[in-house]
Specification:
The chain is mainly α. Helix content is 77%, strand content 0%. It folds into two domains: 129 residues, Four Helix Bundle (Hemerythrin (Met), subunit A) (Up-down Bundle); 181 residues, no CATH class. Helix 3 runs parallel beside helix 5, helix 4 packs antiparallel against helix 12 and helix 5 packs antiparallel against helix 6. Its EC number is 2.7.8.-.
Length: 311
């Protein structure tokens, strides 16, 4: 990759702070090439996202079968789906073709993949002699995945907001979303309002899990109106960046590596318990640590630590 090409590649990323190593080394380079091709032929980011849903759901269906070679094809499809999921965001940044609907669609794409995977694994377990009770851990693990993915994505966007500002993140809040909803009509804007209402509820859930963080965000907006002093930005980045590794752990790569392991040893039921009893404690720790970071900066801002006269 030439120097200019490498620069373009870097610009297609969100931030090195929030990118996982395996993404930087593997998924992002593949996504960048897919995005370049799509930009050349006029394919939109939303079309790429929708295509990823078909590949991800197809992968989940193939995990239903007990034949390892069929499962390996499913693994390859899931890897390709995630490459497309990487490409849609890179394409949106490369072509400046960003939209809230695109962000919502991209956010829920993975939920479609893993819903298919959980259903397929439950049915597979029943074929192998498990009772219908396997649906209990299957559903609980699925719910756990939704919360893990939602909070990891939220904390990443919060980090991007603090280090890049409002324009460099995809951070929304439920009050502003509700204000937009109030301007819409169910009769005239049914589909848009239905999607935005679901997204507002999703955002409300994220906010309810992070009360101290909400207090910090409100304080920052009151004091700085999204124009944060460099000293504050640097301090937040240093203290908050270590938490990004936890957002990566509960996201795609870690869970899929272990999913593939459980499939290879033909013990797919372990995936549900890994989700609940390994990833959920990490989620709880991640939320707790983020709240501690937020409390620290609330105290700092209350004493005007980062006002210009202190810089």
């Amino acid at each position: 990759m030439s120097k200019s090409e490498h620069t373009l590649f870097e610009q297609s990323l969100k931030s090195n702070d929030t990118e996982e190593r395996i993404d930087i080394w593997f998924y992002r380079p593949i996504g960048y090439r897919i995005a370049k091709f799509c930009a050349r032929v006029g394919v939109t980011p939303n079309a790429v996202t929708i295509t990823s849903i078909f590949f991800g759901v197809g992968a989940g269906i193939l995990f239903y079968y007990g034949d390892l070679w069929i499962n390996i094809i499913g693994m390859l499809l899931l890897v390709f789906a995630n490459s497309l999921d990487s490409a849609d965001g890179q394409l949106a940044r490369m072509t400046d073709n960003k939209s809230r609907f695109g962000r919502i669609l991209d956010g829920f794409a993975g939920d479609f993949w893993f819903a298919a995977i959980h259903i397929a694994l439950c049915l597979r377990c029943m074929n192998e002699g498990w009772s219908a009770w396997i649906w209990v851990p299957g559903v609980l693990a699925g719910v756990s995945h939704v919360f893990q993915s939602a909070m990891a994505d939220y904390y990443r966007n919060v980090h991007l907001y603090f280090i890049k500002g409002k324009a460099g993140s995809e951070l929304d809040n439920s009050k502003e979303l509700q204000a937009e909803l109030d301007k819409m009509s169910w009769k005239k804007d049914f589909f848009q309002k239905f999607v935005l209402n679901g997204y507002k509820n999703y955002t409300t859930m994220q906010e309810n899990f992070s009360p101290k963080l909400q207090q910090l965000l409100q304080m920052v907006k009151r004091k700085y109106a999204d124009q944060m002093p460099a000293s504050f930005v640097n301090a937040f980045r240093i203290r908050n960046r270590p938490l990004m590794k936890y957002t990566n752990i509960v996201q795609f790569n870690t869970r899929v590596l272990f999913l593939f392991l459980w499939i290879f040893i033909d013990q797919v039921w372990l995936y549900f318990f890994f989700d609940m009893f390994i990833l959920n404690p990490i989620l709880i720790y991640m939320c707790k640590r983020q709240e501690q970071v937020s409390a620290h900066f609330i105290d700092q801002l209350a004493t005007n630590q980062y006002d210009e006269k202190h810089i």
